[in-house]
Design goal:
Elements: H1 3-22, H2 58-64, E1 72-80, E2 87-95, E3 103-113, E4 116-127, E5 139-146, E6 156-166, E7 173-182
Antiparallel strand pairs: 1-2, 2-5, 3-4, 3-6, 6-7
């Protein structure tokens, strides 16, 4: 006889608990807060603003701290080396923050021969991590890519891809790819 009301109360408690777990948090009420406990500081009277604090709050300090620049890399140009036609000089611009984590800069160039579809010049290079300066300022670097298959053709489009990897950054890698017509560099 007493079992039926206990089961009903138990089911009601389970339903209320499940609803509390799945329901979004209630919005703050416009009711006044409860009175402070004895021995604690009282809150200001309604309608008055608190006096300004001479110290910055932690949230304003966090927002005023300089953020690390995002890791970025851009291919700014490419030209066939006039003295060694199997080399291409690729100029890059990049920025990365000092993280103390492993980093690398890889660049590749691919150029199909328009007269012979079976021939493709291809080369890649990896810049030594000690030469990849990550101090948060914009950097420029020229890398040399040696063709592993044939000499580079002037006046012909190529695909240039570069990837800057910095495992301590967010995102950990960025890349740029461009279609660039390879020519000899301009004569100074």
């Amino acid at each position: 006889m007493h079992l039926r009301p206990l089961v009903a109360v138990g089911l009601l408690a389970l339903a209320a608990g499940a609803a509390a777990l799945t329901a979004p948090a209630p919005a703050p009420a416009d009711e006044p807060s409860p009175a402070p406990a004895p021995g604690t500081a009282s809150s200001p009277a309604p309608g008055t603003a608190p006096s300004p604090s001479p110290e910055a709050s932690p949230s304003s300090e966090a927002s005023s701290a300089p953020e690390a620049p995002p890791t970025a890399v851009t291919i700014t140009g490419a030209a066939v080396d006039p003295k060694v036609p199997s080399r291409v000089r690729v100029t890059l611009a990049y920025t990365c923050a000092p993280t103390g984590q492993p980093r690398s800069l890889n660049t590749s160039v691919e150029q199909p021969d328009p007269e012979d579809p079976a021939t493709t010049a291809f080369g890649a290079t990896r810049t030594s991590p000690t030469l990849v300066l990550c101090d948060g300022t914009p950097q420029a670097q020229t890398v040399t890519v040696q063709s592993k298959t044939s000499t580079w053709l002037t006046g012909t489009d190529s695909v240039v891809v570069t990837t800057l990897t910095d495992l301590g950054a967010t995102p950990p890698a960025v890349a740029d790819a461009r279609r660039i017509r390879l020519d000899l560099p301009p004569v100074p």
